[in-house]
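Duplicate of #3305? Posting structure anyway:
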């Protein structure tokens, strides 16, 4: 029998309402009958909370008429406007929202989800009473022919944040800057309402993570550590239920797919154009087979195979193929290939060149020594610090997602091996904690929506039978995963272990998709799977291609990192031709190779690591290293 839900208040604090001001030189926003209610983005344009009695008025009052305060893109096209318009030829970031049903399966439930949406409009804006160029396509202020809908992964990744940091690169890479790019925060995430955070403050989550996220190799008794983590998972899910009631029934991938279909319809486009990454490929597979007649030109990059997610722990144990190979062949092997000028770990020892076998042994000795005793460190901003096994291995795993960070991590390991913990302590300190005491406290602190990821994973596998021997089975799974992949096994195990308790609080999600993945699509989709991807193995893409048959083509991207971020002119050419013209290779599978090798990208060791950590925090906080 389903546990009754506590009283549920979906309201969030309403946004402050400044006085209505006079119009801008670009007119008033939102435009009449705009279903997304787009206004130029500023640092105030967060969608109204669900408790706002007049959200339309609140939103209109957030429009700032001063173009200097708006978020403009880089200049991308020739100026066809008067010289006194400093923003001519520049794209514009537009913020809006879309209300969708909380429960698509029950039309008597009046509750809604308010999806936060950010669009990068490549045409920019047109000034009022300015003649439009007849040659520009799209002309200033107009919507492009197609809109590339993006989703970065997770579960729990923010599509609006993804749009902020990547939209301009995506439209250039996939459409030569011709198509708009739209990202949204999936239900439960970030600025979408209701947002699901089960801790009132990020500092509370940080505190408990120190106790519960210890890796198996540093647990004096793995069985005892498992009991602690299991009890905390139960407590966390109870907190989710106490704070959010039955909301976890409505956040699974099937409902997110329905939200994406609502976005397509609201865009007014007959078919969806999309670039979906990592877990976003799971959304894409589900959506395409639920709505096959809506499929336009869709790329799934860093391909998951959603059948795995229906299995108990499948999100974790099916993703371990590549991490060890990426470490040995990529991080260490490419370091030696690049040489000591580009990788610190390639420095000769005793005047002798370093071999791959020797380097692998040295790094294993380093991490084992830290598992036996953490290394003392000091960080000026936070004082005394420890470099722990759990934190270091987690940092190595997260670095395998982005080969641009490898010179920085190699330098850190080289210094740590030599007894200098300064860089290691600083790197881990930047990535360990979500709460930052150096920042001023906002009037209404909003905790991160980290728990959403576990809730989605567990909702999607809710009907997988729990093991009759309970923690004995989970302990065996933990041991097997860490034996198979010492770098990723712990992290992936902790992604799925909470599912032991999901049905205690939410016996059945409102909808899960259990159909096949071989429906006949309006247009075939393009899959990209990488040979050394540490999270989504090439095996996933090939299994999905085998099931989809003529409805898909696959690029085998020979490179490093998660998704096709290791640039390949071959991959980019196929992807761009597909998005612009709908043309795909005749062959089911096409090999492409990265243009360059890691360590030879010309990166800066400190700034790249900071950028990498900011990126992880935005799209998949579960990868942030923990002590």
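Output from current build:
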């Amino acid at each position: 029998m389903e546990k009754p839900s506590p009283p549920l208040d979906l309201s969030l604090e309403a946004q402050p309402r400044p006085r209505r001001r006079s119009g801008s030189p670009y007119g008033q926003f939102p435009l009449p009958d705009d279903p997304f209610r787009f206004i130029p983005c500023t640092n105030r344009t967060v969608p109204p909370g669900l408790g706002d009695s007049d959200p339309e008025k609140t939103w209109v009052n957030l429009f700032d008429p001063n173009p200097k305060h708006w978020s403009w893109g880089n200049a991308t096209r020739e100026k066809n406007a008067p010289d006194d318009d400093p923003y001519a030829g520049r794209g514009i970031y537009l913020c809006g929202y879309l209300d969708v049903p909380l429960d698509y399966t029950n039309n008597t439930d009046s509750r809604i989800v308010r999806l936060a949406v950010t669009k990068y409009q490549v045409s920019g804006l047109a000034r009022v009473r300015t003649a439009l160029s007849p040659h520009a396509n799209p002309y200033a202020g107009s919507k492009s022919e197609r809109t590339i809908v993006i989703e970065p992964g997770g579960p729990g990744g923010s599509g609006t944040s993804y749009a902020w940091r990547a939209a301009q690169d995506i439209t250039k890479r996939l459409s030569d800057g011709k198509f708009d790019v739209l990202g949204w925060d999936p239900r439960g995430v970030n600025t979408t309402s209701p947002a699901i955070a089960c801790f009132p403050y990020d500092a509370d989550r940080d505190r408990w993570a120190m106790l519960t996220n210890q890796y198996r190799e540093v647990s004096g008794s793995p069985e005892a550590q498992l009991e602690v983590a299991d009890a905390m998972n139960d407590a966390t899910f109870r907190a989710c239920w106490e704070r959010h009631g039955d909301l976890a029934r409505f956040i699974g991938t099937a409902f997110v797919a329905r939200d994406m279909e609502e976005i397509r319809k609201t865009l007014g486009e007959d078919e969806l154009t999309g670039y979906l990454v990592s877990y976003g490929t799971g959304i894409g597979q589900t959506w395409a087979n639920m709505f096959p007649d809506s499929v336009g030109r869709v790329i799934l990059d860093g391909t998951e195979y959603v059948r795995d997610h229906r299995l108990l722990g499948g999100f974790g144990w099916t993703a371990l193929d590549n991490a060890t190979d990426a470490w040995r062949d990529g991080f260490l092997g490419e370091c030696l290939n690049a040489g000591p000028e580009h990788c610190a770990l390639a420095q000769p020892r005793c005047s002798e060149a370093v071999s791959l076998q020797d380097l692998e042994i040295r790094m294993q000795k380093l991490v084992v020594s830290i598992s036996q005793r953490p290394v003392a460190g000091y960080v000026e901003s936070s004082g005394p610090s420890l470099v722990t096994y759990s934190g270091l291995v987690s940092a190595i795993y997260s670095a395998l997602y982005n080969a641009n960070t490898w010179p920085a991590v190699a330098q850190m390991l080289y210094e740590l091996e030599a007894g200098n913990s300064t860089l290691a302590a600083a790197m881990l300190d930047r990535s360990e904690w979500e709460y930052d005491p150096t920042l001023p406290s906002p009037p209404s602190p909003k905790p991160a929506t980290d728990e959403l990821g576990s809730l989605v994973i567990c909702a999607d596998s809710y009907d997988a039978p729990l093991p009759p021997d309970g923690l004995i089975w989970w302990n065996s799974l933990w041991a097997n995963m860490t034996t198979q992949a010492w770098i990723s096994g712990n992290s992936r195990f902790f992604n799925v272990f909470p599912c032991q308790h999901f049905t205690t609080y939410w016996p059945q999600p409102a909808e899960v998709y259990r159909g096949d993945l071989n429906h006949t699509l309006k247009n075939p989709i393009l899959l990209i799977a990488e040979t050394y991807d540490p999270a989504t193995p090439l095996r996933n893409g090939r299994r999905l291609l085998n099931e989809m048959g003529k409805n898909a083509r696959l690029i085998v991207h020979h490179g490093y990192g998660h998704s096709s971020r290791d640039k390949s002119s071959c991959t980019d050419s196929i992807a761009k031709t597909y998005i612009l013209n709908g043309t795909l290779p005749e062959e089911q599978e096409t090999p492409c190779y990265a243009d360059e090798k890691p360590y030879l990208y010309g990166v800066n060791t400190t700034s790249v690591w900071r950028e990498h950590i900011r990126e992880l925090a935005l799209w998949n906080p579960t990868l942030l290293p923990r002590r």
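Confirmed duplicate; merging threads. The chain is about 35% helix and 15% strand. Residues 152 and 231 are 31 Å apart (CA to CA).
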